[in-house]
Amino acid sequence: MKKTPWAWVPTLYFAEGVPYVAVMTISLILYKRLGLSNTDITLYTSWLYLPWVIKPLWSPFVDMMKSKRWWITAMQLLIGASLGGVAFTIPASMWLQGSLFFFWMMAFASATHDIAADGFYMMGLDSHEQAYFVGIRSTFYRIATIFSSGLLVGLAGALQVLTRSIRYSWSLVFYLMAGLFIAFWLYHNWVLPTPEEDGEKHTKTAAAIWEEFRQTVVTFFRKPQVVAGICFMLFYRMPEGLLAKISALFLVDSSHNGGLGLSDGEYGLVQGTVGVIGLTLGGILGGICASRDGLKRWLWPMVIAITMPDVVYVILAYLLPSNLVTISVCVFIEQFGYGFGFSAYMLYLIYYSQGEHKTSHYALCTAFMALSMMIPGLFAGALQEAVGYRTFFIIVVVACSMTYVVAKRLDIDPEFGKKQKD
């Protein structure tokens, strides 16, 4: 008897979202609370983007070596072990080296889980079900984001009040996440279907896979407007690459360092809940607008939306408000604008990937997407500590000019993205 997709699609994409947020967001707050400098935090955590950058290199081997079902459950178990490892090392003397090791393990497991889950989604559902559940999976990924960066960070703050220990409270949170992933592993071992296609043996050799990958790369770089396209992929989000990690650290940094001094619970509400809701609503509106009038029509409004709201952090840095509503409104505006403007970026990746090898080309585009966040993040902390939060946020606003420059060079079909008339 076929298992209903409602039994596994929501939980699968919830499980996809949690480790990504743990690696990219929760690690920032954890290391800030443990006394690491902004320079070290952004340098170390930006390298954790690397598994998503090089994901296209090993995705063919994931297809060849085992079934997608096997990879999903195995990676969930490995993610659980990594979360347990972080929890175990936080109170230890070598907490930095140990936790970074397990965050690296979690990042590679999470990136591999992404490959397997997306492939399994296409194998486990027919075309009608794929279309029906695409919004469901996105919704549960966002719920996972709110759960991780909102509820779990808030829980860490509440536990600090009870235990009077930063390390112990964060360790308990990571043990909780580890238990959650052991539950996911057990549940998905039981509930995931076994599509016949997923059980097929792959006969390609490693040499054949590498040759196919080489051809994919060659055709990718022979596309029309390749220079303009790659520049857009790398620099459209460059201001966000600078802002993303520092904005989180600014919200929780103490007032004598120029930050807003939010507690973990307040951060979980402002950034992890209100911010994520703004990001989601902006993304939904962006998709609706682009599907109605096409990407070309909405490109410049989306460019403005992803850049202009960055000014709110300049305002926050100068005024340093203590009112939580004011801070939440500012974060909502910035995240809503980012979600709306990011729609143009994702649609352009699809546009650039059209034609032969479109799936592989899209994977390469997502590698550039991860790289666009990784590179600015590596030096963002050092830049902020050198100039202070106020000047740093002004630099981010000035850097937004690059977004306009790369968007100007694009040549997009006016019909792309529009709903086709019957």
Layout of secondary structure:
Elements: H1 9-33, H2 38-46, H3 50-53, H4 55-65, H5 68-89, H6 95-124, H7 127-163, H8 166-191, H9 206-220, H10 226-235, H11 238-252, H12 264-293, H13 295-307, H14 311-319, H15 324-352, H16 358-399, H17 401-408
Helix pairs in contact: 1-2, 1-6, 1-7, 1-8, 1-11, 2-16, 4-6, 5-6, 5-8, 7-8, 7-12, 10-16, 10-17, 11-16, 12-13, 12-15, 13-15, 13-17, 14-15, 14-16
What does this structure look like?
By secondary structure, the chain is mainly alpha-helical. The protein has 17 helices and no strands. It has helices at 9-33, 38-46, 50-53, 55-65, 68-89, 95-124, 127-163, 166-191, 206-220, 226-235, 238-252, 264-293, 295-307, 311-319, 324-352, 358-399, 401-408. The chain is globular. The two termini are 37 Å apart. The mean pLDDT is 89.
Please name the defining characteristics of this protein.
mainly alpha; 422 residues; 17 helices; globular; single chain
Written as H for each helix and E for each strand, in order along the chain, the element string is HHHHHHHHHHHHHHHHH
- Low-pLDDT windows of residues: none
Determine the fraction of residues in helical runs and give it as a percent range: over 70%
3D shape: globular
Number of strands: 0
Strand content: under 5%
Overall average pLDDT: 89
- Class inferred from helices and paired strands: mainly alpha
Oligomer kind: single chain
Instruction: Give me the number of helical elements.
Output: 17
- How far do the termini sit from each other? 37 Å
